[in-house]
Amino acid sequence: MNIPKSSFPRIIIIGGGFGGIALAQKLSKKEVQVVLIDKHNYHTFQPLLYQVSTGGLEPDSIAYPIRKVLKDYPNFYFRLANVEEVNANGKLIKTSIGNLSYDYLVIATGSETNFFGNKEIEQYAMAMKTIPQSLNLRSLILENFEQALLTDEMHERDALMNFVIVGGGPTGVELAGALAEIKKGVLPKDYPDLDIRRVQINLLQGGDCILPGMSKKASQKAEDFLEELGVHVWKNTRVTSYDGKIVATKTDLTFSTATMVWAAGVKGATIKGIDAKELLAGGKRICVNQYNQVEAYPGIFAIGDVACMQSDDMPRGHPMMAQPAMQQGKNLGENLVRLLENKPLKPFKYKDKGSMATVGRNKAVADTKNFKFQGVFAWFVWMFVHLFFLIGFRNRAVVFVNWVYNYIRFDREARLIIRPYNRDYSPFKD
Amino acid sequence: MNIPKSSFPRIIIIGGGFGGIALAQKLSKKEVQVVLIDKHNYHTFQPLLYQVSTGGLEPDSIAYPIRKVLKDYPNFYFRLANVEEVNANGKLIKTSIGNLSYDYLVIATGSETNFFGNKEIEQYAMAMKTIPQSLNLRSLILENFEQALLTDEMHERDALMNFVIVGGGPTGVELAGALAEIKKGVLPKDYPDLDIRRVQINLLQGGDCILPGMSKKASQKAEDFLEELGVHVWKNTRVTSYDGKIVATKTDLTFSTATMVWAAGVKGATIKGIDAKELLAGGKRICVNQYNQVEAYPGIFAIGDVACMQSDDMPRGHPMMAQPAMQQGKNLGENLVRLLENKPLKPFKYKDKGSMATVGRNKAVADTKNFKFQGVFAWFVWMFVHLFFLIGFRNRAVVFVNWVYNYIRFDREARLIIRPYNRDYSPFKD
Questions:
Q1: N or C: where does chain A have the smaller number of CB atoms within 10 Å of the terminal CB?
Q2: Which residues constitute the domain of residue A278?
Q3: Contact residues on chain B for A2, CB-CB shorter than 8 A
Q4: Which ranges in A43-153 belong to alpha helices (H)?
Q5: What residue of A is the nearest CA neighbor of B400?
Q6: Do the chains contact at B64 and A413, CB–CB below 8 Å?
Q7: Which of A61, A190, A405 minimises the CB distance to B71?
Q8: Which residues contact A386 (CB under 8 A, 6 or more apart)?
Q9: How many structural domains does chain A have?
Q10: Is residue A107 domain-resident?
């Protein structure tokens, strides 16, 4: 990997997400050598992926070059690689570009889509956790309408214009809302020869409310917003199978659709070499103590989505969102310095800054510690919070231009099939 | 294809480039049915592709949804398809989504990279005529530097950091200049552990001057600008082969490089069914008369790059650029209406608005009928002309934000490998 030896201890960070970047920034001027490894050369601002999928934003403006984050830090190295295995005994990692030893290892690999072992769903469903996946979904949505024009079979056309989104968390809610806005603002003009009223957007949720992580009030209001926009919300509806044509559920309900988006769960993106007994059952998150240490492996830490710090009020760990990852990254950065100075470590304290979700223009819900609010004000707050947390002035400016334009013109101009998404099956022919 | 029958005559336009779009706009309120077919669902602003390749712009902001151009035009249909063959006798076209008959057919398919029959170069060289190709080049450039970090073999590293651009037309000149600016502004910060001074940018031109379509003064000044930026300009240097490792030329000169960009020629993107004797020898452009009619086939027209309208002062047709295409599109739009009204047609008169090329910040050359100018003023003119011809307010705003940012910060933030470009060969292992 061509990382020079240094007299400073070497900290390897796997993953340039919210946690990894926050940690790197904390270590920027310390007497350590830092090697950050990611399989992409950019940081992804995941909360806005759904806007890439629905043509509202360009992918490049929610991505930020990791090398640019690190460029002014001495003793920092970035490597574009897949980490294949951790060898905790040998204190080294195996990657697609060779092995590297560490003094401290921080696993900040985030999360990946959880299909709960259902291979069929994994094969046919669309996921939306990375920029390439979001672009595939964008292409598929547009391709569906192009294809719908060509068929005279009513059931085929309906299936192409029927969107089933599984999972009523923020991702599912935001995607459903964005699709509903395209249905209203863009599709009737783009496809005057299709009956766009027949476009269906279905949001399926296994539990009895959407946005289960938020307040009852927010959940109910988000549902109202979705219904206003024409989204069909199906609660207590658990999907059992999807063969590329029919979504089956635990009840009698089925959906004939060419597009099912799976936003029903994530799991920690753990790494080979971390023993299964260190993982929280089901979720694949690595159990850590209050210092983010993986206790079975001295010198190994985990932060963010992949880490599970259990506590009495959070028996399954912190929510898998940007805030806990960033805060853990910062705290660990300070703790690593304390460790090197032989000072006592500071336990992680999560400061809940609240959560929010947006459904559509002027329609958002927000819960903070002291206030819960919905509607136009929440929507403005949502926008400014997201602009604030985007990395880079250029990204902010470009996203802002797009938002202003989309808002004024009821439009989404990035409805471009740059790379076609080629299904390896036909949803209609046997 | 599900295009309804209409009492109006049907005009099929193949291609949504500068010519096809200009033609469609002219026909917008006429008593005709127009079917526009393109293999992409967007119009590409080709003059800025090199900025996508070099991380200066996002691909989405130089693309514009074709459906959006047509949305207010009654009797207009867009279909996303490949046109496979023209059947002039049957007055129909065969496409990937079925056949369609026409009353008038306009071939506006533009041009494609001309490898002059050299299959080896076609296999190993990078082209830059479409957005996906430009993104592949962007990925490859960045991947080269990531790979250069990993090798200790000096010749491998040098080959990865050696860029050979073949063709001294505007595309080659602009790409070479942009690479030189990245070398100066971005690479030393991103790759402090590489000796960026060893990065080589070579521009190879077969003839004895670069920008042969422009004035002597512009050509010379562009060459000076390139040399100032550290680009090596090799004139009278004709490439004979490239095997993925070594560029050989007609002289003794060879280049060891992992990246050769081929910008040495284009040819008309003609269609099966148009007889070879209708094509200009060598260039694959379809010969048309002064009304853009393909005389051998009544009812078939060709405009833009694919059309060759020979005249005494332009024996090989108009330059293959946006301006002739747009002007021909407009003129043909008017002529089609005249045709339907049994009025005499108006011959095409090319109004040369001049040409320009940009080399780098504050460095451009421009030739107009009355003035030839170079430097800062030409650069500003270049920018405003390009902003003006971009379609769409959002695209203009986003491109403008990027340019201002890039100018002030000497930066290119879209240096993202969204989709890796996977070579199917290794430039170093046999």
A1: C
A2: 10-39+81-113+266-340
A3: 149-152, 193
A4: 49-53, 66-70, 119-124, 131-148
A5: A398
A6: yes
A7: A190
A8: A47, A48, A399
A9: 2
A10: yes
ipTM of the prediction greater than 0.90, yes or no: yes
Query: Which of chain A's residues have a Cβ under 8 Å away from the Cβ of B411?
Result: 394
CA distance B45 to chain A (A): 13
Judgement on whether residues A278 and A294 belong to the same structural domain of the protein:
yes
Per CB-CB distance under 8 Å, the chain A contacts of B417 are 40-42, 80
Provide the CB-side half-sphere exposure for B23 (13 A, CA). Answer: 36
- Per the CB < 8 Å rule, is B150 touching A415? no
Distance from the Cα of B195 to chain A's closest Cα (Å) equals: 14
Burial class (CB in 10 A: 0-12, 13-18, 19+), B256: middle
pLDDT in tens, chain B (430 residues): 899 999 999 999 999 999 999 999 999 999 999 999 999 999 999 999 999 999 999 999 999 999 999 999 999 999 999 999 999 999 999 999 999 999 999 999 999 999 999 999 999 999 999 999 999 999 999 999 999 999 999 999 999 999 999 999 999 999 999 999 999 999 999 999 999 999 999 999 999 999 999 999 999 999 999 999 999 999 999 999 999 999 999 999 999 999 999 999 999 999 999 999 999 977 799 999 999 999 999 999 999 999 999 999 899 999 999 999 999 999 999 999 999 999 999 999 999 999 999 999 999 999 998 999 999 999 999 999 999 999 999 999 999 999 999 999 999 999 999 999 988 788 876 5
Q: How far is A184 from chain B (nearest CA, A)?
A: 15
Structure tokens at B348: 């095409």
A418 vs B1, B131, B151: nearest CB: B131
Same domain? B245 vs B124: yes
Domain termination site, one of B307, B340, B373: B340
Residue linked to tokens 């332009």 = B314
Shared-domain flag, residues B170 and B193: yes
Cross-chain Cβ contact A150/B417 below 8 Å: no
Q: A340 with A32: CB under 8 angstroms?
A: yes
**Is position B283 within any domain?**
yes
Among the partner residues B65, B77, B405, nearest to A416 by beta-carbon distance: B65
Is residue B80 a contact partner of residue A418, using CB atoms and an 8 Å limit? no
Whether residue B127 sits in one domain with residue B28: no
Following DSSP, what letter does each residue of B147-209 receive, concatenated? HHTT---HHHHHHHTEEEEE--SHHHHHHHHHHHHHHHHTHHHH-TTS-GGG-EEEEE-SSSS
Probe site for chain A from B416, B419, B422 (most A CB atoms < 10 A): B416
The verdict on a CB contact (< 8 Å) between B398 and A402 is: yes
> Catalytic: A174?
yes
